[in-house]
Design brief:
alpha+beta; Heat Shock Protein 90; two-stranded antiparallel sheet; 14 helices; 65% helix; disordered N terminus
Length: 438
Amino acid sequence: MDIAHASPPQPSRVPVGLRAPFSGRIWREFLYLFLSLPLAIVMFTFALLTISLSAGLLVTFIGIPVLAAGLVGCRGLGALERVRARALLDEDVAAPQAVRPVKQSLMSWVGAVLKSGASWRHLLYCLLHFPWALFAFVFSLTFWSVGWALLAYPLWKWTLPAYGDQPGIQIWGDGTAGNSFYLDTPFEVALTSGIGLLIVLAGPWVIHGLTYVDRLLVHGLLGPSVLASRVSELESDRGVVVDTAAADLRRIERDLHDGAQARLVTLAMDLGLAKEKLAQDPQAAAKMVDEAHGEVKTALQELRDLARGIHPAILTDRGLGPALSALAARCTVPVQVTVDLPERPAAAIEGIAYFTVSELLQNISKHAQATSATVDVWRSEDRITLLVTDNGRGGAGAESGSGLAGLAERLDSVDGLLVIDSPAGGPTAITAELPWRV
């Protein structure tokens, strides 16, 4: 079947509230709560054993390695919990930073484990998860089973007079006539079933709320710390910046080698030939000098274009507004530029903003088939926002390996953001945000 022309899935006619009790997601979450109690008992027991045993042996040297081994065991139990959360809650929690001893020795390994904040967070999870798992297990199991039992009351009511020697569910009383109330009339049976239906319909939201607390515990205590995540993000951003700088250097080297350098080599050869012919054939020498003069002009223009690609002089001298206007004037599509900045941002941010607009306008010229475009730049609190729109064919996306994907990575390396809104048929609106950083 042609995927491009496949019909979109039709929305279900059954309301979400009625479908929820039968959805696989809710039953997986209920299974997660059901399995939490036995696993929490194991983790709580192991954590208490670790603390008590290491505390009892602390007067000797053995207590410290025992504590480190217990923390490693807690990390192993945490890994099991992350796998369970991924399988049943669709929560993909990254593993915390591994223990990295400075030296390959037992004491170095013990010290690294004890200094690791992730190890202590895993121990805390083993202790805190038990009371919550006990409550969530009892509450969810009771709530869910009572709801389904009341809903199905008309189906199993006959068992009470047949085997329980009573006409229905007893609400109160001592079993004697006149002192007891039973749910046995058709209205009472229907009302009981209706209450069960309400409980069943509310069950998915109750179960989802209970597992939300588990999600918070897993993310907060079993995942990497905020600081570690930030360090990893900065390392990744640094790699992007280094790769981008290397790619720019290769581009400059290629442009110099294939452009101005080749022309200057040709120019030197032509001037050498003209020098040899100057005495024998002055007219031919003059013609060769005239051609060399044209090559000099072309080489100078290529060097100016290359310098403009590195960092345009107009951007340094006059700022982002005039630089973008000059950039728009060279675009093959008519571009309206509006820049509303109270002052100039940091030079690095200004340069990134310029080259971001430059790349977006190049995409419009090459691919958009547009007849007009706009560039709007303004400051919003501590951010500078760029909005580039066109009335072209649309369909732009940040697929892996595309120019927009590389642009998004470059913006992300400085805490920037790229948002693409380009439906098929257009129009296209691409928003970029950068920190101001004066």
